[in-house]
């Protein structure tokens, strides 16, 4: 795995990062978010910052398409079930529905998440070489040596490498996020009229999503570190033998608490606006479609 990383510009050894040079502090450590940005731009240009965008888009569309509608369906089912059998369980509907919907979305879209993580983590083999796309990256996972060795590495299951760590990260993230988002959203919408305009719905949902997403991202950062470590592992056999708990233990031994929360700033900075934008626009589209359906029924009547 070390051969896929260059030494930072500050390094005096002027070599590729190897197992031997990785022991040097200047070769193996970044000093923070802005240090990463600066060194990536110096080494590979501004375009590198958007590496994996196509994979992100390919991931976002099916993930959101599965996640949010399933969350609404599961929440409604659980609320109806709780109302009939155990009303005291109704407040837990967002937590259970969010966890179930996110688990489903993670399992279905895990290969694309794997491709995106690898596209963002590894450099091209040669300068000027065209970066690998999603399909080529997944083929590289299936055949790391150029020959198909599916029988020796667990077959196509290797495409779901790290899915356990991803679920371990995303399920608590969704549980925390929706459990925080729903009360905030209800409180904000309660301050306006019952039939709010799209602007008020957008503002209330964005604010609730931003706060909930930021809190959930900060709380689940160690699990995100474990997921990333597992998905950038290039040895299929070693990856198959690893698990989330073992990866977290390795991170703790090598970096302590600080290692577990590596990258918390960028993660929170991305998750807050991301959740706010997705939830707010989803709710606005639902509101507009509901209003059109309601108006069409009134015209028919």
Automatic annotation (TrEMBL):
<protein>
    <recommendedName>
        <fullName>Mitochondrial carrier protein</fullName>
    </recommendedName>
</protein>
<dbReference type="GO" id="GO:1990542">
    <property type="term" value="P:mitochondrial transmembrane transport"/>
</dbReference>
<keyword id="KW-0472">Membrane</keyword>
<keyword id="KW-1133">Transmembrane helix</keyword>
<keyword id="KW-0677">Repeat</keyword>
<keyword id="KW-0999">Mitochondrion inner membrane</keyword>
<keyword id="KW-0813">Transport</keyword>
<feature type="repeat" description="Solcar">
    <location>
        <begin position="1"/>
        <end position="77"/>
    </location>
</feature>
<keyword id="KW-0496">Mitochondrion</keyword>
<comment type="similarity">
    <text>Belongs to the mitochondrial carrier (TC 2.A.29) family.</text>
</comment>
<dbReference type="InterPro" id="IPR018108">
    <property type="entry name" value="MCP_transmembrane"/>
</dbReference>
<dbReference type="GO" id="GO:0005743">
    <property type="term" value="C:mitochondrial inner membrane"/>
</dbReference>
<feature type="repeat" description="Solcar">
    <location>
        <begin position="200"/>
        <end position="288"/>
    </location>
</feature>
<keyword id="KW-0812">Transmembrane</keyword>
<dbReference type="InterPro" id="IPR045315">
    <property type="entry name" value="Mtm1-like"/>
</dbReference>
<dbReference type="InterPro" id="IPR023395">
    <property type="entry name" value="MCP_dom_sf"/>
</dbReference>
<feature type="repeat" description="Solcar">
    <location>
        <begin position="89"/>
        <end position="187"/>
    </location>
</feature>
<dbReference type="Pfam" id="PF00153">
    <property type="entry name" value="Mito_carr"/>
</dbReference>
């Amino acid at each position: 795995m070390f051969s896929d990383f260059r030494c930072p510009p500050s390094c005096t050894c002027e070599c590729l990062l190897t197992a031997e040079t990785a022991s040097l502090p200047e070769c193996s450590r970044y000093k923070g978010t802005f240090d990463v940005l600066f060194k990536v731009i110096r080494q590979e240009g501004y375009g590198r910052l958007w590496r994996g965008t196509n994979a992100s888009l390919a991931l976002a569309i099916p993930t959101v398409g599965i996640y949010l509608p399933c969350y609404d369906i599961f929440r409604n089912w659980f609320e109806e079930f709780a109302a009939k059998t155990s009303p005291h369980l109704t407040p837990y509907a967002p937590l259970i529905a969010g966890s179930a919907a996110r688990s489903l979305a993670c399992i279905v879209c895990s290969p694309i998440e794997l491709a995106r993580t690898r596209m963002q983590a590894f450099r091209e083999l040669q300068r000027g070489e065209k970066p690998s796309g999603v399909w080529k990256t997944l083929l590289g996972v299936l055949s790391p040596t150029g020959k198909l060795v599916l029988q020796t590495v667990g077959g196509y299951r290797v495409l779901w490498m790290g899915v356990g760590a991803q679920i371990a990260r995303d399920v608590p993230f969704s549980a925390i996020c929706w459990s925080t988002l729903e009360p905030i959203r209800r409180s904000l919408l309660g301050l306006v009229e019952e039939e709010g305009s799209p602007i008020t719905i957008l503002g209330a949902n964005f604010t609730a999503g931003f706060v909930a997403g930021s809190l959930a991202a900060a709380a689940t950062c160690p699990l995100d570190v474990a997921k990333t470590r597992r998905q950038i592992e290039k040895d299929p056999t070693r990856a198959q033998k690893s698990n989330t708990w073992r990866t977290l233990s390795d991170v703790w031994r090598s970096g302590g608490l600080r290692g577990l929360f590596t990258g918390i700033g960028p993660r929170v900075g991305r998750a807050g606006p991301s959740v706010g934008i997705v939830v707010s626009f989803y709710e606005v589209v639902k509101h507009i479609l509901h209003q059109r359906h309601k108006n069409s029924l009134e015209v028919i009547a």
